[in-house]
Amino acid sequence: MDTQKAWEIENAVKLVDPTRDALYNYNREEQKKITDARPWRANPNHFKYVRISAVALIKMTMHARSGGDLEIMGLMLGYVEHETFIVTDALRLPVEGTETRVNAQSEADEYMVQYLDRSRQAGQLENAVGWYHSHPGYGCWLSGIDVGTQHTQQMFSDPFLAVVIDPHRTISAGKVEIGAFRTYPDGYKPPDSGSSAEGMAAVPMAKAADFGAHANRYYSLEVSHFKSTLDSKLLEALWNKYWVQTISSSPLFTNREYVTHQIEDVAAKTREVDGGVRMRGGAMGGFAPRAGPKGRKSGDEQVGKVVKAAEKIANEERMGLLAAMVKEKVFAAGVAPASGNGSATAVPVGGGSAGGDTQMSDVKA
Amino acid sequence: MADQKASPNPLVTTKAPETTLSVQLHPLVLLTISDYISRHTLRQQEGPVVGAIIGQQNGRNFTLEHAFECKLAEQDGNIVLDREWFAERIEQYKDVHKAPALDLVAMFTMAPVEGPQGVHVPFMRQVQDLTSTEGIMLLLFHGSQVDQLQGGKLPITLWESVQEQDGEMRFRELSFEVETGEAEMIGVDFVAKGGGNATAVAKADAVPAAESSRKDKSKGKGKAKEKEEEADGDAAMGVLSPEDEELIASLNAKANAIKMLNQRINLLRSYLEQLPESYLTDSSTTTPPPDTINHTLLRSVQSMLSRVPLLAPPTVAHPTATSSENNGGLQPSSIAQAGEKERQDVHLTGLLAALTRSVSEASNLGSRFHVVAKERTAKERSGFSRGGRGLGNVPGGVTDESLFA
Asked: Where does the record place the region Disordered (chain B) (predicted)?
């Protein structure tokens, strides 16, 4: 057909490497076979890995960030292979709210069904393999409600995966903070009761009880991402465009509010620990504990958490300062920060920016 | 199409636009198109690669933010959008992009470098008809350019449609710039850094019977692990705390960016050095400058240089102030003051974190000391000479150690 040819005049170009880009393929029969066999029924820990496509990852991160302090939610499309979830795409759901409302499944159900229907008509055959939502500022783990949602999903539409993204920490850490989880079936006791979620030390006070109560009902999967050969080429070209922002970003400024919240939280935790210590050691004075080894242990644990949280904040702040100092060194050559404490952090910067310095001043001269 | 290759594309108008559009392209659009092309090709789907791009419109400013593929239909021998499908799909996207509200701003497809083709005309007419706006742009992805990308040029061009007086539709090329949101940039950066092609990898401990033919066995186990390490930069040194790794990753990104800046400046320098001597500074020369000089470029270099001192804080900009060690006479600029304050805040947080740790460790010491003291009292009182002490110390000691290790 003529028109067809005219449209596809450019499509003949080989942009895709069938071996290296194999994850972009989709085999309906094979998926059906896997779904029928249901290997995940036999082993609660069957799925161990998640691989997320570049597009899906960026979509989810942006969606999470767009919600600000509100939790957002969406679905992931993809398929399963052996012990791995392959996430190929993500879609937003028209649900937004605080953590208690994020499971408003029914509102989104209709949207979801129609959306997937349309996608299939356009040739995107994947099924939904999971849902994602954001935890703005309190880390990647599953709350009680999340566990309930995920548990239901695993019962009725397995294979299903839960992904949590923390947009605030993504911004402050400069890398995508993401966690992927599956719940255990009822009555299953995980062999090691150690918690699987990350960033445990930094769970804010308001959420700590919720976190602790459900931490052993789910486990986390290892998340990695993939991109196509075409993606790599484009990214390389893009880097030429967006490197400017890497230098010019000022995390100290953009994250000010978030950091203030974090500090408030640590302060509150400190007060709590302090109160606890006073109660226990009141009669004897000092730090001597009266409540026996058990009480002391939990007290020390709390102190440890506070220490970790405080150090995390300090570290993030230091990275922000580094960014500012790099900028200063490169663009305002000649004025070195004179603060004594800063010299420790200034050392690694000096070497890296030396080239930039001379170049800049050469041009100016 | 053959005749178009020889002569300039008849669909492209050279007429200057009345107003200029400012268009900002987000990387996600590009990656979505790339994703679609990869999928389309591998799954051997039929029909051309066509999709829509949504974004914001603010007067003559456009952003291209999200993209999705479209279902097509045939109408009078032309390939056009499936009306019903498209109307519903665009509503679905609008539903979830309300703040800021996004609407259809462009369509994308693949095309040769020459620009829009005849087949695109009825298609764009239909789109205009569907949306009852004329401002829908056309983004063309040039697959043939992908392997010869140079200097950060992207393999795409953007076109706006123009209604000519003879009633025909023509296209005019638009310039655009790449713009990223903060989260988007981190996402793109994260994806770009982490190694990883999309080879299907069988985990080594998977059920052997379930292998499919396209597995790359040699890369089996631990592939995902490796990748994670790659993503964190060169953290292969072993025992680095996650904080250190984060620091290294962010410093690496900065270093790369600075290298890039350096490259760019070198490029400009070598270009400027190649140029012949200015005939203005040397009044004895009579030869006029050659025509090959790119005046626009020189002018923008000049304007950039004259702006640099304006942007830098005053105490920094004047060489006299920077060269003299003591610039106490000058008031530090407000930006310098703000920077100083910022720095103090950061160090204060650092100090507080260190203090917290000290307190915790002091408390730790206190409780251990207490155990020892208690043990000693008990020993003195009862007169036991051995035992007890070592054992008594263990439970508390071990847990404390593990907590703060």
From this structure: 204-234, 314-333, 377-405
Provide the shortest C-alpha distance from residue A35 to chain B (in Å).
13
Per DSSP, the residues of B324-349 read SS--TTSPPPHHHHHHHHHHHHHHHH
Amino acid at A132: Y
Nearest to B31 by CA among A16, A239, A55: A55
For residue A179, what is the DSSP state?
A: E
Count CB-CB contacts under 10 A for residue A348: 16
Q: Is B146 on the interface with A (CB under 8 A)?
A: yes
Query: To which residue do tokens 């500090």 refer?
Result: A263
Residues A84/A180, Cβ–Cβ less than 8 Å: no
B204, pLDDT greater than 50? no
| Burial classification of residue B237, based on how many CB atoms lie within 10 Å of its CB (0-12 exposed, 13-18 middle, 19 or more buried) | exposed
Tokens at A179, concatenated: 């966690």
Cis peptide before B100 (omega within 30 of 0): yes
Each domain of chain B, given as residue ranges in start order, spans: 2-183, 242-282+290-317, 346-404
- Judge if ipTM > 0.90: no
Contact B322 A363 (CB under 8 A): no
Predicted pLDDT at B278? 66
Count H helices, E strands: chain B? Answer: 12, 12
Cα→Cα distances B293→B176, B243, B271, B277, B300, Å = 25, 51, 11, 12, 13
pLDDT at A112 over 80: yes
| Burial annotation A176-211 (CB, 10 A radius, 16+ → b, else e) | bbbbbbbbbeeeeebeeeebbbbbbebbbbebbebb
A192: pLDDT strictly greater than 60: no
Q: Residue A270 above 70 pLDDT?
A: yes
- Residue B234: which residues within 8 A CB-CB, separation 6 or more? B248, B252
Instruction: Assess contact for B160 and B133: CB atoms under 8 A.
Output: no
Whole-angstrom CA distances from B10 to B7, B122, B194 are 8, 16, 44
Please name each of the domains of chain A with its CATH number: 16-236 (3.40.140.10), 249-334+342-350 (no CATH)
CA atoms within 13 A on the CB side of B176: 29
Beta bridge partners of A130: A76, A161
pLDDT, one tens digit per residue, over B185-196 is 888 878 876 555
The answer to whether the CB of A352 falls within 8 A of the CB of B257 is no
Contact of B175 with chain A, judged by CB distance below 8 Å, is answered with no
**CATH code assigned to B2-183:** 3.40.140.10
| Helices assigned H by DSSP within B182-291 | 182-193, 223-231, 242-274
Mean of the per-residue pLDDT values of chain A: 74
pLDDT tens by residue, A50-106: 889 989 999 999 999 888 888 888 889 988 887 888 899 998 888 765 544 445 566
Contact criterion met (CB < 8 Å) for A322 and B250: yes
**Residue found by looking up tokens 């304006």 in the block:** B310
Tokens of B252: 């690496």
Which segments of chain A are extended strands (E)? 49-53, 71-81, 84-97, 127-134, 161-165, 178-183, 218-226
